[in-house]
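Data availability (excerpt). All sequences and predicted C-alpha cell strings are deposited with the supplementary files. A representative entry, Ribokinase, is shown inline so that the format can be inspected without opening the archive.
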Amino acid sequence: MMPKKIVVVGSTNVDKVLNVEKYALPGETLAIDSYQQSHGGGKGANQAIAAARSGADTTFITKLGRDEDAEMMLKGFQQDHMNVDHVIMTDQSQTGKAYITVDQSGQNSIYVYGGANMALSPDDVIAHREALAKADRVIAQLEIPIPAIIAAFKIAKENGVQTILNPAPAKEIPEELLHLTDIITPNETEAQTLTGLEVKDEVSMLDNALKFFAQGIKMVIITVGDKGSFYATPESHAFIPAFKVKAVDTTAAGDTFIGALASQLELDNSNIREAMLYANHASSLTVQVAGAQNSIPDQAAINAEIQKIDTDQDEVEAEKAAAARYAAARIPDHIVLGLGSGTTSAYFVKAIHERIEKEHLDIECVATSLGTQQLAERLKMKMLDVNTIDAVDITVDGADVVDENLDGIKGGGAALLFEKLVASMSKKNIWIVDQSKPKQTLVGQQLPVEVIPFGGMGVFRYLRDHGYEPAFRFEKNGDILTTDSGNYLIDITIPAQADLAKLATDLKHQTGVVEHGLFLGICDELIIGGQQVRVIDRSKN
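C-alpha cell line:
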C-alpha cells in the first residue's frame, strides 16, 4: 500500500500542567513543590502525528506564535517526519495554550487560550493551496476558525481531494462546510449536536448517518469510546467493536483513531473494515499510556499488537481443536449424534468423521446449522432430517460463554433456533470450548435474541425500554444478519443482578421473539481445550 498524502489543517496547543495540593481560596497564596510541565496537544497536531506515525506522508498546516512553545512543537513535528514547510508563524499571537491545574483528588481546572489557532484565516490557507491540491485527503477539526476550514475544503474539492471533518469540539456547523465534507467523524455527543438525534444504538446511529447523507456526505463514522465505532455509507454499514484494554488515560484516543484511520483507508473506502480495525488497535494502545502525543503509537507498535492478537487467536484455535478431538474420542458407536454449529463444532465434525472412517462406526448425525450440514455432507457422513426422529443420543456443540453453574449462552453463529431444538431432543449435551469461554457469571455478556423480521422493531423497542441495550446483528457487508431459519438477531447485554430463569421466561413471552440464547441446565459435560484438557461433569459439579 502506497503511503497516503495527508494534509491536516488544524490546531496546535501546548498544555501547561501544574499539580497542586489544593486550590487557593480568593486572596490566598499557596506554595507548591512541583514544576509546571509542558506537553504538546491540540486536535490538529494530535491527528497529524497519529497519521505520520502510521506511515502517512503528512503535511501540517497550523499557525504558531514566534515563541519557545512553537520551537518545542516544531522540533517534535520534525522528529515525527512531518512536513512543516506549511506551518505559519505569526508575531501577532502566541502559540495556543491550555493552562491546567490538577489537585490531589484529580479534579482539574482548565483555561484555554486559542492564540494563533484562532488567527488562522482563509488567506493563510489559500497561500498554501499547492499542498492542499496535491494531497490524497485533507483533515480538519473545529479548534480553528470555520472560514479557514471552508477555504481548505474548497481547494480540496476543486482538485478531487477527499475531505474528512472531525466536528470536535461539538458546535453547530454551517451547511456550506457539510456540503464540502466527504467523511465526517463525530463521537456520539457531536453527532447528536449536529443531527438532533440521540445516539443510543446501531439503529439510531444509522438514523444519524441518513441525516448526514442528506447533506451530501458520503461516509459517516461515529465513535463511541470504549464500545467501538460505527461506519455507514449509502451502500453498507457496520459496528466495529473496540478492543478491551485497561484504560489509563483516554486523552488523544479519538485523535489517534482518526489519524490512524486516514493513514490506512483506501481512497475508494474499499478496506473500511480493515482500516477501522487498525485504528481501533491504535486507540487501544493510546489509552494504556498517560499523556497525549507521547501516547500515540507508531505503525510498528500497532502492527505488533495486531500480530499478538493473531497469535493469541492461533492459540485459541488450537484449544478448540484439542477439545474437539477429546470429545470425538469418547463418542460411542451406534448412536444418533447431534452436530453443533460454529468453528469449534467444525473441528469436532472433522474429528468424528476420521473415527467413523477409520473404525467403521455406525453413527447417524443431525446438524444444528446449515453450515454444519454442508460440511458433514461434503464428508459423506450419514445425515438425518431432524423432523424424522424423536430423540438424539448425544449432541456436541460449542458455546459462546459458560458460567460456573454450566449455564451458558449460545446462538452467536445465527443458528440459535435449530441449536436449541436439537439440544432439547438430546439425552446428553456436551459442550466443547476454548479457555476464554468459561466465566464466573453471565452478567454483562452479550445475549442473542432471535426475532421474526416483521416483529423485530417491536421487540427492539421493548428491550431498549427495559434497559437491555439492544443492537441488531449485521453481516460484514452491512446487511442485517439473517439466521438459518430466516429470522433476525438482536444482541442484548445481561444486566447486573439478573435472574436468568426469569429473563429466559420473559423473553419467550414477548411477542415476536422466536428463541433466545440462554441455555440453562442443558450442558451435561463441559470440555475445555488446552495442552491439558479439562472436563467438568454436571452430575459431579
